[in-house]
Design goal:
Chains A, B: It comes from Falsiroseomonas selenitidurans. The structure is a homodimer. Chain A is of the alpha+beta class. Helices cover about 35% and strands about 25% of the residues of chain A. Strand 2 of chain A pairs antiparallel with strand 1 of chain B, so a sheet runs across the interface.
Chain lengths: ~325, ~325
Amino acid sequence: MALPAEFGLIARHFAPLAGPGALALEDDAALLDPPPGRTLVLAADAMVAGVHYLPDDPPETLGRKLLRVNLSDLAAMGAVPLAYLMTTALPRGVAQDWIAGFAAGLAADQREFGITLLGGDTVATQGPACLSLTILGHVAPGAALRRAGARPGDEVWVSGSIGDGALGLLALTGRLPPDDHLAGRYRLPQPRIALGQCLVGLARAAMDVSDGLVQDLGHLARAAGCAAEIGAAAVPLSAPARAALAADADLLPRILTGGDDYELVFAAAPADAPRIRAAAAAAGVAATRIGRFLPGAGVRVLDAAGNPLALPAGGWSHF
Amino acid sequence: MALPAEFGLIARHFAPLAGPGALALEDDAALLDPPPGRTLVLAADAMVAGVHYLPDDPPETLGRKLLRVNLSDLAAMGAVPLAYLMTTALPRGVAQDWIAGFAAGLAADQREFGITLLGGDTVATQGPACLSLTILGHVAPGAALRRAGARPGDEVWVSGSIGDGALGLLALTGRLPPDDHLAGRYRLPQPRIALGQCLVGLARAAMDVSDGLVQDLGHLARAAGCAAEIGAAAVPLSAPARAALAADADLLPRILTGGDDYELVFAAAPADAPRIRAAAAAAGVAATRIGRFLPGAGVRVLDAAGNPLALPAGGWSHF
């Protein structure tokens, strides 16, 4: 008796991704002996074609992006990546080449981040592809970075550069000139795993920037029961983003609220600035002070003259 | 600054489901201290509207079914349920009442099975709803039931009754007369959690029946490197399924290959039959011997005269 086609698909494309405990994806569930004495860190993010990515995004980068948006959540908690489960709902006529590319992207990032596939499900949908991934990592007990914990007087830091992902989407959809750097940042975010681990015991609060810097900083401020104020000119931009902004100053709101950054935004005591710089250097990523936390509520973005900028709605919303 | 609508949706409907370690669904990830000295058991299953359920299925039973198809995987491994993560991709115009019903179903089953929500993601899709759930459970090290392990001479057992889910789908779609029992079995499977735990150290191999008895028994046989032979008349049927089959003998293949049973099929040594019966009695579910494992390969289903039945393709396939 022949097996249904999905078994061949799983055996061909996904079984090679399976690691210890995955039981070759042939049992009903996976087995995992968690690292002794560590707290597990778990997150799940979904991506839908046409919403979270462009239908013609290369499947290789798509597989990697699916992993990386989840790894970014681990980075925000200061966790060490461990393994993942994944469910894919794919259009019935999906090409084998597409799946092969998607799996090749996963394989590349498994090697890069030291993780393996534990299990999952492969089903068909009559709609756009819908990809869901659950990531597992671990931290020392009590050590996880949290969103709550910033205090008035703490400084606001952000890793890497902001706005590239949002501008990359514009570049890929013809609303900005083509730009490989920006497109690459949209398609292949860099989860700040090493930095997150270096910030354990150092940052007072942290989260990843996925829905736009202003909105996500608002989460840190709200969790701390205080306000945050940043200078627009202090927000670190890549050279292509600076060039785009120089050509069109109206891009600033998009940069500050557009999302898809997958950088870390975090709070630290002013006296810890040298240690933050050292941690960032050790992690091989830039860290930039962009403002501070204050008594009050909400997020203010100041222009070069110190006047609050009026920004449109705070970030990406699905509903 | 107002938060996007999805935050209200999550706070209203999903945050009440969050348990210890979920950090009120307000951080980037959840924290879980795994039960010391236990092996974690993890599975992920997805359900798509129009594929895995009927678009007009009540949201309450849908939430419960999403949990239960995953719990059934834990049952198949003999695991104790612990917690879950969930991603939901929902059509943009989804009614709040629908989400409230869906969450109420999850809440009911959280109580029934002693689990809580750890985290997840809520996104929009332009296609049919796509629901993905990752379940976590635990077993004693080395104790998990596995698909491999049956030996020639072992007996084939199945829990509960077979075919109700597949016939329920027919009843719900007008291809059979309406039937509350069958419809209920399609919409609300009964994961055999207690039985699975009672079978640890007793069953030589086990899995859950989700893609049809014949196909899934084929997995057990293949994993064991042997054949399986069952008697069609020995397969346990509910009274409504027996009545439907009496009215239309052509329903037999649907019963044996239709899927959506979420029963356990397992192997045990003949001498262990009394212990199996005692385990099933302790778990409060029927267990029925339907055949045996033999040298060779494949699955044979015999009719009352002992002749092999010709069955159509072995089970549900997505691709």
